[in-house]
Write a structure and sequence with these properties.
2 copies of one chain form a homodimer.
Chain A lengths: L6 H19 L1 E3 H8 L3 H14 L2 E6 L10 E5 L4 E8 L3 E8 L4 E8 L7 H21 L3 E9 L3 E2 L4 E5 L4 E4 L1 H4 L6 E5 H12 L6 E6 L3 E7 L2 E3 L30 H4 L1 H5 L6 H13 L3 H25 L4 E5 L5 H16 L9 E3 L6 H16 L2 H4 L14
Parallel strand pairs in A: 4-7, 7-11, 12-15, 15-16
Antiparallel strand pairs in A: 1-3, 2-3, 4-5, 5-6, 8-9, 9-10, 12-13, 13-14
Helix pairs in contact in A: 1-3, 2-3, 6-12, 9-10, 10-11
Chain A binds a DNA duplex through α1 and α3.
Chain lengths: ~400, ~400
DNA sequence: ATATTTAGTCCACAACGTAGACTAATTGGA
DNA sequence: TCCAATTAGTCTACGTTGTGGACTAAATAT
């Protein structure tokens, strides 16, 4: 429920307001900030002074547009102090990204590993090494890592950080959060959700969309008005188990005819006879050569995706649909059939069918979204960073 | 985006906090309020004084639990001052409800009319008369009607108050909001959404659930953490067009095999040969007599509902599913098959399948939800009511 | 040069919540 | 019966924060 508003909360709110505007608009003078926030110049000056002192914001040189009057001094987000860690465990790679407060990517580490054949503990230990060395390097560059988030391909209990079931990895009930102790506030979440947030903050994208993550399973992350929809328990977005045909092939979820059985990576690659990223590359090259079998596989998957998405559009009303994961490289060959299917199934009811676009970030989306989530949190509540300034305590745990 | 926090916003926030606690807990002493809100006794006393002066809250007699110390004076929501209007247009009736600030229903008016055979303007004119006489009576009883909301069976553009398409009524692009001018701030919304809110505030229910409204069309309202999920444009919840079978019977939406074609009122009543509420009553009595045709119709509908709900659960992760509308009287005969279908399709993936329960409110849900929404708004921002205290201006328009 | 315009700071002030002393009203026990 | 203990609620001095307008600073236009 709502919280008591005291003077400190008032200040924190206004601090976040100012920092949010600076973050959203790039750079602004104090006068412009006063205008957009509705606060007085006096108040804005004080708030900006605080933000400068904390190192979240810096003055740039004065900027002039040839207008009359005293030129204003613009301030912008300071990127060389605060940063966040974005991590991802996926089937055939581990990824680490460090993103600073201005949302620039400061460090990229990706390691190709076959995580399916390894034990969860070993995978996590390897990620831990990778992450710690990235943190070291970032700290060496003067950055302070205030927190991190980890993307995992499967539903996660947000409170405990336990991965219930990651079929791609073959994991069941792995307590990832407690195994991966980095001495930082950490947060574990579904890959599709974080990839959606990555698309929101680092992609070209709109602020309302459904991100579809095609892997062995198919997940989705729904962003409405710039924030993630998680459902009652945080397990929303399991697009892969939306029913395409009620008496279709059995699915590992216990159901039948789930989307995953038609458009999941395994179904797609059935025509190539190979699994994993090798198979995917083969499929892409075959489809480029207009191999009829491969093209048919794409059309079949695209049709099924269209059917499942028509249900989804009816239920959650997304503005745009962004295809990522394996659907990104195959986009040119599934785009048409998906749109067509959607159009024929929704066209009469809706004024407009949501446009289908391709993810720009590729496989980086989830790790970036993970780091971005921590950055977002700092920008949404910079005051939280003020208190632990004297001791070198990290940010308090990130709760969903 | 966020708003600047000034002293008045701080006060407004705390006022809402206190009023919200009183509303949620029934009645509380100032000392107890200080404890639950985290504010000091001093502040709570001042806030409560304001609320009493505005007539939103009253002191009850002192209450004692046999404990030591000075007894506290409890305060509770005052129900005899502020009230809201809830309206509903449906196929065969018009409904008006007046609900006071303590969420007691003060006035019920229902009129049986066949709205399908009448022109939209006439239907709205008739509702207008009904509503105005209800307002008169309420005002005569000393109540001040601060706003209203209208439930319509079909998707509504929340901004303009235009009903795009209400198949049950045969309406297309009717500007309901501007036609129904009551001299009150008014708000038009989808029946399923408002029924869900009715269930939230007036039902037994939980705070996280999916309300399924079975009529000729099938709609749904999703409530997460006590608030309604509307999607990007407010058209979320069109459960009736979730795909049950991709090559099933054609649907008026342009698609094929939509849930509506299997479990909508028309599909259900096909066995009785009669339409409307008469047909429904016939079906219920036939199913009670274990008429095999009627039982089969229910099983068929229940199975389809289970299939569509399994997609829905995967996508939006509701905690509970509440069946309303035509599904309420038929509940005993569809309950089993829905749960069974859901269980077999979700059981392996999820720890628990959301329980299926029946709506308690019956056909009243939407009108109550409509009024409740206005009441909720007052409780969430009582300060908005303070300003127009001297002039007799109504509440500012209710924006979604 | 001087008027005009815009940016940013300074200062007295108002709004609000806080802390703790103080008064009020009750129960338990000597 | 009366007093200590306990809890409710009010009162007052005070701290924090935003405001409004005067004031200073730095540019352009004439």
């Amino acid at each position: 429920m709502a919280q008591a508003v005291r003077h400190d909360a008032m200040r924190a709110g206004n601090l976040a307001l100012v920092l949010g505007e600076v973050s959203a608009r790039g750079s602004l003078t104090r006068a412009a900030l006063a205008e957009v926030t509705g606060l007085t110049k006096t108040t804005v000056s004080k708030l900006v002074a605080d933000l400068i002192e904390t190192g979240l914001v810096v003055e740039t040189g004065a900027v002039r547009g040839g207008e009359r009057g005293r030129p204003g001094v613009e301030v912008r987000i300071r990127g060389d102090r605060v940063a966040a860690l974005g991590l991802e465990i996926n089937v055939d790679y581990l990824a680490v990204r460090v993103v600073d407060l201005s949302r620039s990517v400061r460090l990229r580490r990706t390691q190709a590993v076959d995580n399916r054949s390894a034990q969860p503990v070993d995978v996590i230990a390897r990620l831990r090494d990778l992450a710690l060395s990235a943190v070291d390097e970032a700290v060496g560059n003067g950055l302070r890592i205030v927190g991190g988030a980890l993307a995992v391909p499967g539903p996660v209990d947000l409170g405990s950080g336990v991965v219930h079931n990651a079929p791609n990895l073959g994991w069941r009930d792995v307590p990832v959060l407690s195994l991966l102790d980095l001495g930082l506030p950490l947060h574990v979440e579904n890959e599709a959700n974080l990839a959606a947030l990555g698309e929101l903050w680092f992609g070209s994208g709109p602020t309302d969309f459904l991100y579809v993550s095609g892997e062995i399973g198919i997940g989705a992350g729904l962003v409405v008005a710039g924030s993630l929809f998680r459902g009652a328990r945080g397990f929303a977005g399991e697009l892969g188990h939306v029913v395409v045909a009620p008496d279709g092939p059995p699915c590992r979820c216990g159901g039948q005819g789930c989307l995953e059985q038609y458009a999941g990576q395994d179904a797609l690659l059935r025509s190539t006879g190979q699994a994993g990223s090798v198979g995917l590359m083969t499929l892409v090259s075959r489809v480029k050569d207009q191999d009829p079998e491969a093209v048919a596989a794409c059309r079949q998957a695209g049709w099924a995706l269209g059917v499942a998405l028509s249900s989804t559009v009816n239920l959650v009303d997304p503005d745009t649909i962004v295809l990522g994961g394996v659907f990104a490289p195959l986009f040119p060959w599934i785009d048409g059939i998906v749109t067509e299917t959607l159009q024929s199934r929704l066209g009469q009811m809706r004024l407009s069918v949501p446009p289908i676009v391709v993810s720009r970030l590729g496989f980086e989306a989830a790790a970036l979204g993970a780091a971005g989530q921590v950055i977002e949190r700092v920008i949404a509540d910079p005051a939280a960073l003020f208190q632990p300034l004297q001791p070198s305590q990290p940010l308090q745990p990130l709760q969903p």
